[in-house]
Design goal:
This is Branched-chain-amino-acid aminotransferase. Pfam families: Aminotran_4 (PF01063). The protein has 396 residues and is an alpha+beta fold. The protein folds into two domains: 17-179, D-amino Acid Aminotransferase, Chain A, domain 1, CATH 3.30.470.10; 196-379, D-amino Acid Aminotransferase, Chain A, domain 2. Helix content is 22%, strand content 27%. A hairpin with a 5-residue loop joins strand 13 and strand 14 (269-273). The protein starts with 16 loop residues before the first strand and ends in a 5-residue tail after the last strand.
Amino acid sequence: MGSVAPNIAELDASKFNITRSTNLRDVPLPGSPEELSHSHCTDHMVTVRWTDVNGWETPEIRPYGNLSLPPTASALHYATECFEGMKVYRGYDGKLRLFRPDLNGQRLNNSSQRCSLPGFKYDEVKKLVAKLLQIDGPRWLPEPGSFLYIRPTVIGSGPHLGIQVPKEALLFIIAVPWPDFTKIKKNPQAERPKGLKLYASSPDSIRAWPGGFGYAKLGANYGPSLQAHGKAQALGFDQVLWLYGQDRQVTEAGASNFFIVWHNAAGKLELVTAPLDNELILPGVTRRSVLELVRERLSENFVGKLAPLQAVERTLTIGEIEQASKEGRIVEAFVSGTAYFITPVAMIRNEETDISTLGANGEPAGYASQIKSWLEAIMYGKEQHDWAYTIEEEKQ
């Protein structure tokens, strides 16, 4: 007789074990030190254990608290860890929404398998997040126009030291009050800056490379970059603009995707961002949404005073940006991502050269602002759109 394949359980968000907290945490005020700490989580968390023998176990919602891991856990030794960044929005109609959560679930699944962790049905992730927010959303996100940051994470959690594929893993999801970076001023007395200041990486510092894992959201992408980020901030810059190769290709700005609006050498108005095909950059959910909105709404017709432009995904070098700035062809630049959302870029320092990425009059032209307003309308329910996933809440 042939061997019988083991019954490995899939990730299933339809069943839950729920343990409600009896010691509710204080909800921090907007702008408070607790909110600015990025670490003051909501009352509950989701955990789901996986083993190579049985697959995914029943998800648990339990009081937020520390995890228990053996010192030999794979995540602590071999960087078997990946995560996602999402937000849940309290709409102006009072409803809670996630923005394109299946794209986050799909990317988490891809990242998990890239770092030797188990795969799963990616559309179950949004259901896990929704269940957590059904419980914590009413108390932690009461005000329309506000959001919480959501961090789903997968780690190798078993006690098996040695170079091997993890036999145990843990998926957990936490929710965190998060400051709105687009509204924060470092100096309350100072004039609001016109955009971020980016510090171009040096040739001997590389964030990602072809054949690597720059396209996956792994902790191993971020830890080695933090030192460069700290040095840039010490010099008065907001983020590192990561460059790659002898031709100094523009890849990402910190943990955000980078866009530039310019007139190309032939005079054509374009929105340009790095491509995905070389797998150097993260396929950002906001990045994808920016490109799709521009192609749908801004490729043929004026929007107010904004002229039509073409969205282009291609290799872009810092030399091209510097030349365009010298010739007055830059219209504006911005970054996109879950944390920074849509934020203008004012300048880039490349070695000893400061490159202005503002328009001819020293101001952003308004493309980023328009794209941001379109996205906010979807996220907060002002526009009904299939990118928004509505969460049904428990009655209090």
